[in-house]
Specification:
Mean pLDDT: 89
Strand order of the largest sheet: 2-1-3-6-7-8
Organism: Paraburkholderia caballeronis
Order of helices and strands: HEHEHEEEHEHEEHEHEHEHEHEHEHHHH
Number of domains: 2
Distance between the termini: 24 Å
Radius of gyration: 22 Å
Protein name: Glycosyltransferase involved in cell wall bisynthesis
Low-confidence stretches: 1-5, 180-192
GO molecular function: transferase activity
CATH topology of the largest domain: Rossmann fold
CATH class of the largest domain: Alpha Beta
Strand content: 15-25%
Keywords: Transferase
Number of helices: 15
Amino acid sequence: MSEIAGPAVARRAAGAKPARAPRVLMSPFTNTTNPYIDLQKQLLEDLGYDVLPLSVRSLFRDGRIVDVFRRSTVLVFHWIELRAFTKGGRTVLLSPKGLAVLAFYCALMALGRAKVVYFVHDHAVHNARRNVRRVSVALMSLVRRLADFRVVHAPDFDARYDARYLPHPLYWDAPGSPAATRRPTDAAEAETAGDRPRFAMLGTIQPYKEIAGVLEVWPHAHRLDVAGHGNASYVETLRRIMRERALDDAVTLDARFLSDDEFERKLCAADVLILPHSADSMLVSGAFFEAIGRVPVVIARAIPFMTWAARRFDNVLLFERVDELPALIDGVMKRWPDLARETAGRQRALDEFGWQACRVRYRQFFGEVVGVPVQNDAR
């Protein structure tokens, strides 16, 4: 998804300073593997905030260090704990340089006067093990204590992390984003879909996704498309399982970075999205917010967020253990193509996570809770 310029960006491009727009400094400001950061920037700019990068370079090169000592400024952090780690094959390792950068940001939180908002996305750094995992948990706990406000996208964890729940925006409902309309909406299209739904697992191919467990039990009779940028050694593990179980005719493994257009095409080709993520790593799955309201069925591990979602969406099916997956697939087959005709979930998704629903919740949070309202939000 390409970044869409919001009102604040348009005003800067025209050479005019926003009259009374409060300033939000965001870290990270770009993310080449996921459009989530672009969504957050676009949403805050849509509300009237002046959203700018928060980095060591921008603070000193552009003079924004002054903003850190203004109460009218908001510092917004996403995944700041990742700064302290570096990739090490199938796991992650501590980085001395990254620890120094994280320590600098922690000092800004402790010494500055700006309001600090920390979005808690994970319980621990993905793929961290043993002592490294414990360090990641400790660092995240430190950041949570230093932040003035914490946000989670999983409502069941607001109390655990002393956080405010804000909905994760739908990727497909942002202004300027092409809304997917491929879902069968009439009997003729549903008949075209036939009785063979297409299954997919999309997104990064990493050990914490527990894709290997799915391949160990995958039924040979059903097609599965696995696609996304992958950890090389983990991808080889998946290929070994495919060879040992003779899954080449059933499973397609496309282990490479997908452009936004490629991801969109694969998602639109899927009838059932499978999300087997482990419960001890991430709070929510970004792929869920790509799929809900567009893909007829989502099958997910029963992590707390998915359990919450299943109470609201009839098409979200859960499993506790991966060996329960074949039975769920059989159930989908028996109810197909009736499931393909179901369209009510789209409106429920918009009500829960749509752009306008997010505008209301984010405006209230940043204006009333954080205490930095905007005066020029026209809508």
